[in-house]
Amino acid sequence: MDNELGKGKKTRRTYGFDEISLVPSIITVNPEDVDTSVTIGGIKLEIPIIASAMDSVVSPEIAAAMTKLGGLGVFNLQGIQTRYDKVDAVYEKIASVNKQEYVPLMQKLYEEPIKHELIKKRIKEIKKLGGVAAVSSIPQQAAELAPLAKDAGADIFVIQSTVFSTKHKSSKSKPLILDRFIKDVGMPVLVGNCVTYDVALELMNQGVAGVLVGIGPGAACTSRGVLGVGVPMATAISDCAAARDVFYKESGKYIPIIGDGGMVVGGDLCKALACGADAVMIGSPIARSQEAPGRGFHWGMATPNATLPRGSRIGVGTIGTLKEILHGPAKYDDGSMNFAGALKTSMGTLGASNIKEMQQVEVIIAPSILTEGKVYQKAQQLGMYK
Prior knowledge:
alpha/beta; TIM Barrel; 8-stranded parallel barrel; 15 helices; about 35% helix
C-alpha cells in the first residue's frame, strides 16, 4: 500500500526480519521428518545454506567442508587467495592492525593483481578435497574469469555486485550481455544482488539458475550507510519470490531465490524461508567457525575499494567448529549454532514438511519481537541480547 512521503513523493512501508514473526499452524511435524533439501544450479543441497563468497568466510577447505556438511560454499575469484600464493601471512596482517590502519591496509593488499594460475589452483584444491566448486566474480570480470574457472573444474558460476542490472549504461566499459554469457559459459549461473520484483523477473528471463536477494544488510557491509541504497530483507525476499512464482507459472521453470545477508541467528534463516526464499547465503555465522580463514574477523566484499570503501572489518570471534555451527550440538543459547537444527525445529513447529511448505506459513508483523518479555535477557545481556 502506497503512502505519501511528501508532496510529489510516494513511498511504502517495508519490513526487516526483526519486525516479523512466524505463526504456528494447527499441524506440527516431527523435526526429524522434515525435508530441508533444495536444488541450486542442478545440485541438491541437504540444507539450504550457502557460505558467502567473502575472504573471511570461504577458503578451499571451507568450500569442501560446506559440501560435506550438506550446504555450499562460494569461493571469491577476486580475493586474497587468488592474489597471493601464501595467504597465511596476509590474513595474519589483516587481523593484527587497528581500526585506523585497516582500510588503507586492505586497499593496498587488494592492489596485488589477480593471478590466473592461482584461480585454477584454488578450484582444483576444492575439487581435490571433494567439494562442489562454486565461484564468484563481479560482472566486469565475469567474461574473463568464467572460462578459466570452467577449465579448472568449476561447477557453478556466481556473478555478484552491490546492485545488479540487466540494463547497465556505461561510456567507459562494455556491459556484460547476460543472456549471451549464460549460453556460452557452460555451467549454471547465479546472479545478484537485487531487491525488487522487476529486476528479479528480468534476471530469470535472461536464463539465470538462481537469484541472490539483498543489498546492504550484511554484518560487515556499509553500503546502506555510504550509498543510502537497500530494501529490508523480509520485503525484498517476498517481492523477488513473487517474481519467481510468476515466472514459474508462465515458463514452467523454477528459479530459486537466495536470501543474501542480514542473517545472524537461526531464526533469521527460518524467517527468510517463510518470506519466500529457497535458500540463504550467510557470511558472519560461518566466519565464526574455527576453520574460517578470517582469524575471528569478518569483512565486506567492497571494503578494499580504492575510492569508496563500503565495508568494515568486524570482530566476530570464534565460537566452534563449522559442523557445530551448521549441525550442532550448540554450546550457546542465542541461535548462533546448529542452524540446521533450528530450521528443522521451526519447520516442525510450523507444520512445514519441506521448504515449499515453509514458504506458505503465516507471517505477522511483530514490532515487539526483540523486546516482548525479554527484560531480563536485555538487562543481563543474555540469550537474544548477547
